[in-house]
Amino acid sequence: MKAAEALNVSVDTLLRVDMSRLTPTERYLISFLEKLTKDTLDDKLAWQTETAGYLNHRLETDMNGYCEHPLFSIETFDEPGETEYLDEVTRIVFTSRSYDVHTCIAEDCYNLRMKNGTVLYLMSISKSVYKTGDPDAHAKEIWMCPRCGSNKFLCSTRDVSEIAILIENLYSVVSESAKHPKVEQDIKAVIDAFMNDDVGDDDDTNKNPFI
Fold first, then answer.
1. Of 21, 31, 36, 115, which has the highest C-beta tally within 10 A?
2. Does some domain include residue 8?
């Protein structure tokens, strides 16, 4: 337990993972992924869902050709078509680390607003075209998008196995958490006041706001 505390990881991870063969950056990422998972299980984090249908089909660009989503852009590239020749296509895509522009959103994705307006994105992706049974057709990637500056790739399930396992576990925990009701902090404050028998209106006029 003392060793796990010193390395900032769980005892379970310390028992399963040979931390000595990981780089300092890999150990740092493992600590980060574990805290994300634990805080999600404790209902501390406000993850937002981005459905695969929305990301694949309903993103739009503005009059200057910029996409409303920080991870997506409009690109022109070649991809396999219905004939033996490549087709040139132009569309909004997520240029992933795993598959470059040949990327499709496979499942619901999630984002989490963090410090200083930085947003973390947990992306579930696949190759845009792949054969059935392709073991490398799907991946999960984690990106950081700061308020100012370029997007930063953090890690994916195509990295070392220890990190891949934790990313898959985080995705499972977040997707399960998304199925349960959430109460935002401002509403929670109102409910907490009621639970403490504080039913008075802070507005001295006590007027109906809808009148």
1. 36
2. yes
Domain extent, residue 67, equals 2-178
Here the tokens at position 89 are 């296509």
* Cβ atoms of residues 157 and 170 within 8 Å: no
Indicate the residue type of 165: I
Q: CA quadruple 66, 114, 110, 160: dihedral positive or negative?
A: positive
Answer whether residue 91 is part of any domain. Answer: yes
Greatest Cα pair distance in the chain: 75
pTM for the whole structure: 0.82
Nearest to 145, CA basis, from 119, 117, 122, 115 = 119
Helix 24-41 crosses helix 161-177 at what angle (to 10 degrees)? 20
Structure letter (DSSP) for residue 52: H
Domain count, the chain: 1
